Amino acid sequence: MYRTHTCGELRIENAGQTVTLAGWVQKSRKLGGMTFVDLRDRYGITQLVVDASADNELIETASSLGREWVLQVTGTVIERQSKNPKMPTGDIEISLSSIKVLNRANTPPFTIEDVSDGGEELRAKYRYLDLRRNPLQKAIKLRHQIAHEVRNYLDAKSFLEIETPYLIKSTPEGARDFVVPSRMNPGQFYALPQSPQTFKQLLMVAGYDRYFQIVRCFRDEDLRADRQPEFTQIDCEMSFVDQEDVLDTFEGMMKTLFKNVLNVEIAGRIPRMSWYDAMDFYGSDKPDIRFGMKIHEVTDLVQGHGFSVFDSVGYVGAINVEGAAEYTRKQIDELTEWVKRPQVGAKGLVYIKLNTDGSIKSSVDKFYTPEQLQAVADRLGANKGDMMLVLCGEKRKAQNMLGVLRIEMGNRLGLRDPFNFAPLWVVDFPLFEWDDETQRFYAMHHPFTAPKPEHLELYYSDKKEDLEKVCANAYDFVLNGTELGGGSIRIHEAEMQQRMFEILGISKEDAEYKFGFIINAFKFGAPPHGGLAFGFDRVCSLFGGQETIRDYIAFPKNNQGRDVMIDSPSYIDQLQMDELFLESKAERKEE
Question: Model-level pTM?
Answer without folding.
Answer: 0.92
